Amino acid sequence: MGVNALEPDIEYFPDKASDPVSKGFYIAHQVGGIIAPFSNYSEPTLSFHDYLDQLSAFLAKGQTQLSLVEPDVKKEPAYAPGALAYIVSTIKTEILPDHPELYFLLNVGTIDEANHFFTSTADVALKDIPVASRSHFGFSIDGEDDASKVATRLHTLLGADAQYRLRGRHGGMLRSPWEHQRCPGIFANCRGKALLVGDPELAALDLVALAAGQFIYLGPHVGPALQAAVAQRAATWTLST
User: Fold this and answer.
1) What is residue 172's three-state secondary structure?
2) Residue 163 to residue 178: CA distance in whole angstroms
3) pLDDT (mean) for 136-163
4) Which among 27, 72, 167, 205 could disulfide-bond with 173, CB atoms 3.0 to 4.6 Å apart, if both were Cys?
């Protein structure tokens, strides 16, 4: 069956920043390379650029197995100068031409990291992306429990015309202003959308049960974040699509 989403961790190494291709942005998940030798934080060898280049070559054109790539931008790269522009540009050149079917979710861990990473509105960040693909980009913060605070901050940073949507991990997701239909494969599917207008606690529990039934493993922040986001949506619709 394979997977329908990938979440590569992006780290930043200042000593490699002078490289004109990688700009210091590498895939790195752990210290040591026993399990994943190409994502060794101690000895980074796989740049974000090469990761996308190799992934693009691996995937068949027109494939339907992989739907989402979520670059998980860690603290150091979130603070790195020009990080957002570089990541978007690299997606544009290395994988988007052959795989316009893919969706991309640019994620940081905290609101403070978002303040440094999201240095322009979505309109500006995606201005060089083909119009047809702009709706395939989303932005998120996954390490905060306050869904309302996350939504407000993303809205402020990325533009007032952007639409919000509940994200199925820790916090909230902000879709690009061009997105008007639900992205396939994202956790809050049509069933979840219907549940959100009902009792918040029951909706949250049912969504968790749905996720568990689909073999999605949930982190410790999911319950509180879902409950807060569901309650706000049910009461005010400020997180509705």
Assistant:
1) strand
2) 9
3) 82
4) 167
Question: What confidence category does residue 107 fall into, taking pLDDT thresholds of 50, 70 and 90?
Answer: very high
Compute how many other C-beta atoms are within 10 angstroms of the C-beta atom of residue 185: 12
Out of 3.20.20.190, 3.30.1300.10, 3.40.50.980, 3.30.830.10, which CATH number does the structure's domain 5-182 have? Answer: 3.20.20.190
The tokens of 227 are what? 């409950």
- Closest residue by Cα to residue 50 from 35, 34, 39, 66: 39
Residue type, 166: L
In this structure, what token pair is assigned to residue 190? Answer: 């049509």
Query: Pairing between strand 25-27 and 9-12?
Result: antiparallel
CB 6 within 8 A of CB 68: yes
| For the chain, domain boundaries | 5-182
- Residues 10 and 87: their CA atoms lie apart, in Å, by 10
> pTM for the whole thing?
0.71
In sequence order, what are the residues at sequence separation of 6 or more whose Cβ sits closer than 8 angstroms to the Cβ of residue 169? 142, 187, 218, 219, 221, 222, 225
pLDDT at 30 over 60: yes
Rg value, the chain, Cα: 18
- pLDDT (tens digit, 9 = 90+) per residue, 83-105? 999 999 999 999 999 999 999 99
Q: What stretches of the chain show up as alpha helix (H) in DSSP?
A: 48-58, 75-79, 83-94, 111-117, 122-125, 131-134, 147-158, 190-195, 200-213, 222-236
Highest-confidence segment of 114-118, 134-138, 191-195: 114-118
| pLDDT for position 99 | 96
